[in-house]
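Quick entry, no commentary yet.
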Amino acid sequence: MTAHIAGLGWVTPLGTDLVDVFARIGRGELAEVKAIANPETGRALSYLPVPMKSVEALGRNPRLRRASAISYFGVAAGRAALADAGIVMTPELAARTAVVFAISNGGVIYTRKFFDQIVKQGAHAASPALFPDTVYNAPASHLAALLGIDGASYTLVGDASVGLSALHFSAQLLATSDIEQVVVVGAEECDWILCAAYTDWRLARTPLAEGAAAVVLRRAGRWRVQTHPGATFLRQREAGAALAGVLGDFAGAKVERVIASANGTFIDRAEAAGLAMHFPNVPVLAPKQSLGESPGAGALMQTVVAALTGGCALATVVGFNQQTGAALITPTR
């Protein structure tokens, strides 16, 4: 599928400015690693937080006053992408706009707190104030409401590849409906229980990270994006072949830079194997080395980085849950 990106936005541990964060990634800077402890055992864990000053102004909005961090990040990134595109939302445009959210772990902070209350105090103690943000589609609901959208709103749940799945799904929406634009957002928040899980299950060697990224997808824009439905694999050793099959569909493209999803696990080897078959001499940039592993947001962060390279760039991703994908981003001017 083919569509166009009109605007970009992100909220990262390194900041929110597109040019500044891209430059820092290019220099190989690493966001500040913070410690977070398991309150039950005292076990120290590491993660890369988004400085709350980046989104604290949103707390003045009544709808977001009690929202979880993931909704703050997603709303901030979505609004930033619209601003970057120079788009002012009106009721008429809102009626022709869709929201598509990419989610991996969802509102894990409120979810953990909600069930912690149930386990320790009984079902009667469960807080109704926490429950709304435990559902996966809460961030999409918040963004859609704030933009005045009461129509198409979707949430896709998956592994670290879900951002590219959301991009492909959004391109399909543009091709098969009369909507004018899709605000595509991926977001992630961190809690100690999530950091413990990713550490124990060895899902990432780079620190787990918070953040969000967004693009505004239209039929015309500053970048042309060619999306792909991706391919699955059953065993980790098959991931490289699965990705190679996806990359084969981009063979012949004059790719100047690959934006990879390497995070220090089997994913690095799988990407290297797939790229060796089709793009063996193309320079590779792995932004997770600077931004950390942010599963729900990572693939769309790669997409933003690909657009900011200024040339023809290929974003590749291998997820830990048996999914691979890629997207080709080319400037139109």
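second:
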Amino acid sequence: MTMWFRIVRVLLVFLCLLYRPSSLHAFLPAGDPPVRADVFPVGYTPEGALEVGVHLQMDRGWHVYWENPGDAGMPVSIEWDLPDGYTAGPLEFPAPGTFMSGDMTGFGYDSEVVLFSTIVAATADGRTEQFPEEVFPFEADVSWLACAESCIPGSARVRLQAGTPRDELLQKAATWKSLLPVESSADALQLDRAVLEQVKDRMQVRLEFSGAEASGIEAFYPSPSLSGLDLGGLAAGPKHVVLPLTSADAPSAVSGVVITAGGAYEVESAIQLPASGPSGSWWSGVVPFLAMLGFSFVGGMLLNVMPCVLPVLGLKVFSLIGSPGEHGGQSGGSR
């Protein structure tokens, strides 16, 4: 279900681009593209992997998308062209922001962002020395969807050189690296439970938190695998997050990134039914049915004591038990 939802979402984005060709061509010939990309080495991990910063700069008013783009969009992606023996890990996304386009909610970045990719050598286990310079440069294709009043897909071929980048880039990398989500913990932030509940005619999932950072919860960004949410209705506050659902079919688990005043935390939990009793689409359908039966019974009883119905009650009783004369005739005939 999730896979089909994402496919349909991507197709809708490109159909919108095809439907508005005049807006697209209005931006393409006008000089530089609205997004520029480059890569630079951040440093080596203790395990010997090379951490790479993927730097995107957006013109004013333009934005690119997080790993879960929201109601529509496409996340930034990178495809490395590496020599034999070298592999790249998945792209790491810092905590995003939220932007609205009409009634659609999107998650991503404006102005600029540094994403992170890690390159590992086949012999990197236990080593801390740098990669030999002769393996450089590494090349990659970075792709994105940039949106403002209209959307333009873009890409760039980037080249990673050996050496130390400018201090300015390293400072940017440090800032954005501090926004990478970390695993939640009982001391900082812990998701105690995720409960499915019904409020009026809508279903929602309520997340309850504890820990030192729980009182400073500011936002929640659902993971790409979590669908069926009304993203425009997400609400976050001290020690809780509320996720309204678009239907009565609730997901079995919830996962995402919680933003607090002190950082970003990855959380995950199975969704529990409320302890007070059944809920969900089955119970919400049974309750109106039982109420209808109750009202029908009460209405039938009232109808039987109405003045216009009273004379008929005697005829109904006689038809059920029969008259004395009829019983006598039957007895005589039997003799």
